[in-house]
Amino acid sequence: MIKSSFYRVIFTVFALVLSGSAKASLEIVITGGLDSGRPVAIVPFTFNGATVPSQRLDEIISADLMRSGKFSPLASIKMPQRPASAEQIDYAAWAREGVEAIVIGKITETGIDRYTVSFELIDILKGSNGLNKQMLNAGKLVLSNDHILDSRETTITGSQFRQYGHRISDIVYEKLTGERGAFLTKIAYVLVNNDNEFSHQLIVADYDGANEQVLLRSKEPLMSPSWSPDGTKLAYVTFEKRQAQIYIQDIYTGKRTMLSSSPGINGAPAWSPDGKRMAMVLSKDGNPEIYVMDIASRALTRITNHRAIDTEPTWSPDSKEIMFSSERGGNPQLYSVNLLTNKTRRITFEGEMNLAGSFTDGGKSIVMVNRTRGLYNIAKMDLQTRFLQVLTRTTLDESPSVAPNGSMIIYSTMHGSTQVLALVSMDGRFKARLPAVEGAVKSPSWSPYL
Questions:
Q1: Rounded CA Rg of the chain
Q2: Letter string b/e over residues 245-267, b meaning 16 or more CB atoms within 10 A of that residue's CB
Q3: DSSP helix/strand/coil, 144
Q4: Is residue 204 within 8 Å of residue 215, measured between CB atoms?
Q5: Which residue, of 29, 98, 223, 273, has the greatest Cβ tally within 10 A?
Q6: To 5 degrees, how large is the angle CA 321–CA 324–CA 330?
Q7: Counting beta carbons within 10 angstroms of the beta carbon of residue 414, is it exposed (0 to 12), middle (13 to 18) or buried (19 or more)?
Q8: Residue 67 has what DSSP assignment?
């Protein structure tokens, strides 16, 4: 399956027309890693008003933090109390539960479809040890509030609860880890349902599959969506004209621009970090090779020149290298070409195959599909130590895409006989599936920060 994926750019040139139309929503099914993160608690927010919001902020925040793999939110049934303010917190009771930090909040209905939301992030350990600690403020000694890590208040509408829940999750994640949260980001993917007239749909949704929006419906295959660095456009491959073509589409206006329609393969578009160039696979000169196009001028530069198949380009964060998959060593492995010197080096050696690589941690690590003993799984390798960690135990994993903060990976895999999306945290602790209600989903691509 993976090897066929490796050659999909070639084979789909000859793909047949399929028919159908469908709507689908992804549903998260948690498959592992619930109790391995830092213990925190998101206390159900108190509510004052007549119209109860349809979505619960505490549930959205808890789910976000758990999916990062770094936190293990306490179930509400196990919470020792339900405080509505920092003054009401029994720190000893929370400490006995092993909880490091809690989020408490209030929702007040202030008008028609208007809600004021306030919340506080409390450090339980600091609260336990330093409630009576004093600090200087304007020359006067006052009680310290350094156990309150953050507190905010804002007014939102009823339709904004989910987005604001993700916003609070980002704040909590950053305060507790020092890293920026990525819960307000989105994913793009291709939904395939051969029973419908438009069998292929290009869809954008929240990172957890909610709020999906169809950007393009097609009777022909769509593949390889790739986000622009500013998060406003997607590049992708379409066979709408019975020929592989690369398009760029503005996700807000829907405006489409054809980027490449060379004879043969036009595949695997990948934006440069500055958004000015596009790496891609073209076979216009015979063999599939890596090219870089200046988007403004459409000028092409050939990057690789080898009799083996070179595909799946991805840029290093500093734009100095392009990593790609190549069979030039006998089996598909990851290679990198220096764009200044044009020197190519092999990156991966462990396992039978390594495909679909992308840089993480500012270029210190890579994520890839690794085949060992016939199993295709998502793996992470530290480029300095060469330590390779297999992160998944699912089946026929492919197309990994990393969240912009490097905390999670979304990828395509098989569940039974159906292709689904799956999530795994970068440390391999949290695992979940995102199957579609109808059809198969594939080619996920995680957006940058939006």
A1: 24
A2: bbbbbebeeeebeebbebebbbb
A3: coil
A4: yes
A5: 223
A6: 130
A7: middle
A8: H
Please name the amino acid found at residue 66: M
Q: Which helix (H) or strand (E) holds 151?
A: strand 148-156
Which residues lie closer than 8 Å to 370 by C-beta, 6 or more apart?
348, 350, 351, 353, 354, 376, 377, 378, 379, 388, 390
**Rounded CA gap, 33 and 31, in Å?**
7
- d(CA 357, CA 227) in angstroms, rounded, equals 16
Residues 6+ away with beta carbon under 8 Å from 226 = 234, 235, 236, 269, 270, 271, 445
How crowded is the C-beta side of 253, counted as CA atoms within 13 Å?
Answer: 8
* Paired tokens of 290: 């890596």
Segment 102-115 shows an average pLDDT of 96
Task: Single out the residue of 450, 6, 444 nearest to residue 225, CA to CA.
Answer: 444
Model confidence band, residue 14 (pLDDT cutoffs 50, 70, 90): very low
The candidate with the shortest Cα–Cα distance to 231, out of 444, 404, 447, is: 447
Structure tokens at 315: 């840029």
Report yes or no: 323 and 333 within 8 Å, Cβ to Cβ: no
8 A C-beta contact, residue 404 and residue 68: no
Query: Any bridge partners for residue 424, and if so which?
Result: 409, 431
Distance of alpha carbon 32 from alpha carbon 252, whole angstroms: 36
Nearest to 215 by CA among 447, 376, 42, 373: 447
Evaluate whether 39 touches 100 at the Cβ level (below 8 Å).
yes
Backbone torsions φ then ψ of 123, nearest 5 degrees: -85, 110
Going by the DSSP 8-state scheme, the letter that residue 69 receives in this structure is T
Question: How far is residue 191's CA from residue 442's CA, in Å, rounded to a whole number?
Answer: 7
Question: What is each CA distance from 413 to 103, 257, 355, in whole angstroms?
Answer: 35, 31, 14
Rounded to two decimals, the pTM is: 0.86
